[in-house]
């Protein structure tokens, strides 16, 4: 059991699937030597060529331990093709059909974390491979249709179940995240957690310098990262960026993951220059430690508390500040990204007798010592090797 646990810690699910599906074919040459009738006559040379090919896939996967989306796409696809080729040279049709069924394993395991494009590509390869082999094995059209229909279900149904389970777990996790106020990936506050604390933050600003600063940091070209490298790599980028922001945020500030690839920092400041220097420090920290850049928009304003009719509620104050900070982010993107735009606005009149609608609910728990990303994947540093320079995303 200890040996199995050590192996599971070293390899992720995708690598294990590739090792298991290709490893089952490795003893075939020995079996063919001991029982030559298991292979079609004259196919021993082809068997050794396919075996060498599959052994290469197995060895590369064993050495890499944790495959990137791109590596898994290539090695998984090659493994499927190798398994199909092996089933073509087996003399016994039943043995060939059973070996062919192994191609269903790679798309199903890949569906746990892979992007939709990668899942569909592996499915297409597996289905095409199954059709080619069954055309060779079937002795009639009806036999082929029945066999292909059965194998099609064997390939598709596990992938569908894995994707459905994955979506269900993501929905549950998202619901719990909203309830607890903590982002499970980064360990920062999420949007709801920040809004719960909004009244306290405004009160702290009023009793200190009387000026508030809000920064929005948006990861540049994040959609491209997800499309080219997969969502797992995208999560790694967000984890690296959030760590840099949290490490270099000024003492007393509040940092949260406000949206998908957007981070927010609330800080009590003295003037616009102080907020601009803070924004530049965070922007430079992300560029230096993460494989991406961020566009930063911020707004600085004096805060005045009042109970008069012109005073705005906590939610209105925060919403107005965030709206203007978002406009600054948009301008930063138009300026070429990886830049900072800060605006100063007139006094914000806050009705300090109002609370955010979220504050009436239970406050968020303290951020956990380790995010769920670190718990599940154990090695977020794997993504430190992914660098898109030059020409950052």
Automatic annotation (TrEMBL):
GO MF term list: diguanylate cyclase activity
Keyword Lipid metabolism: no
Top-level taxonomic group: Bacteria
Pfam families linked to this entry: GGDEF (PF00990)
Membrane-spanning residues: 44-63, 72-89, 95-112, 119-138, 144-165
Keyword Nuclease listed: no
Protein's name according to its UniProt entry: GGDEF domain-containing protein
CDD domains: GGDEF
Taxonomic lineage of the native organism: Bacteria, Bacillati, Actinomycetota, Actinomycetes, Mycobacteriales
Gene3D superfamilies assigned to the protein according to its UniProt record, in alphabetical order: 3.30.70.270
PANTHER family: DIGUANYLATE CYCLASE DGCM-RELATED (PTHR45138:SF9), REGULATORY COMPONENTS OF SENSORY TRANSDUCTION SYSTEM (PTHR45138)
EC number, as in UniProt: 2.7.7.65
Domain GGDEF intervals: 210-345
UniProt keyword terms in alphabetical order: Membrane, Nucleotidyltransferase, Transferase, Transmembrane, Transmembrane helix
InterPro entries, per database record: Diguanylate_Cyclase, GGDEF_dom, Nucleotide_cyclase, Rev_trsase/Diguanyl_cyclase
């Amino acid at each position: 059991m200890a040996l199995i646990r050590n192996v599971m810690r070293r390899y992720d699910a995708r690598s294990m699937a590739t090792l298991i599906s290709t490893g089952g074919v490795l003893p075939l040459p020995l079996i063919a030597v001991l029982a030559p009738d298991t292979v079609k006559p004259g196919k021993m040379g082809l068997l050794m060529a396919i075996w060498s090919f599959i052994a290469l896939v197995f060895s590369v996967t064993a050495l890499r331990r944790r495959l990137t989306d791109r590596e898994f796409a290539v090695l998984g696809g090659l493994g499927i093709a190798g398994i199909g080729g092996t089933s073509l040279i087996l003399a016994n049709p039943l043995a060939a059909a059973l070996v062919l069924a192994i191609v269903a394993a790679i798309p199903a395991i890949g569906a746990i974390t892979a992007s939709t494009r990668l899942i569909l590509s592996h499915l297409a390869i597996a289905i095409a491979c199954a059709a080619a082999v069954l055309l060779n094995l079937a002795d009639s059209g009806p036999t082929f249709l029945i066999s292909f229909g059965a194998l099609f279900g064997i390939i598709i149904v596990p992938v569908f179940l894995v994707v459905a389970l994955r979506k269900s777990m993501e929905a549950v996790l998202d619901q719990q995240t909203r309830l607890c106020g903590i982002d499970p990936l980064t360990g920062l506050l999420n949007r709801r957690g920040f809004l719960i604390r909004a009244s306290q933050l405004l009160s702290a600003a009023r009793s200190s310098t009387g000026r508030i600063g809000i920064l929005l940091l948006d990861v540049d070209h994040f959609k491209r990262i997800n499309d080219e490298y997969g969502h797992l790599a995208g999560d790694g980028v967000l984890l690296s960026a959030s760590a840099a922001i949290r490490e270099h945020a000024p003492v007393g500030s509040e940092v949260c993951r406000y949206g998908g690839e957007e981070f927010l920092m609330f800080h009590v400041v003295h003037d616009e220059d102080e907020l601009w220097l803070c924004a530049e420090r965070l922007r430079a920290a992300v560029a230096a430690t993460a494989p991406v850049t961020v566009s930063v928009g911020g707004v600085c304003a004096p805060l005045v508390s009042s109970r008069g009719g012109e005073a705005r509620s906590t939610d209105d104050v925060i919403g107005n500040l965030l709206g203007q900070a978002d406009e600054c982010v948009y301008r930063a993107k138009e300026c070429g990204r990886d830049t900072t735009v800060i605006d100063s606005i007139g006094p914000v009149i806050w009705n300090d007798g109002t609370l955010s609608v979220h504050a009436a609910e239970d406050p968020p728990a303290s951020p956990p010592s380790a995010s769920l990303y670190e718990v599940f994947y154990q090695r977020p540093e794997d993504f430190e090797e992914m660098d898109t320079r030059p020409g950052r995303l």
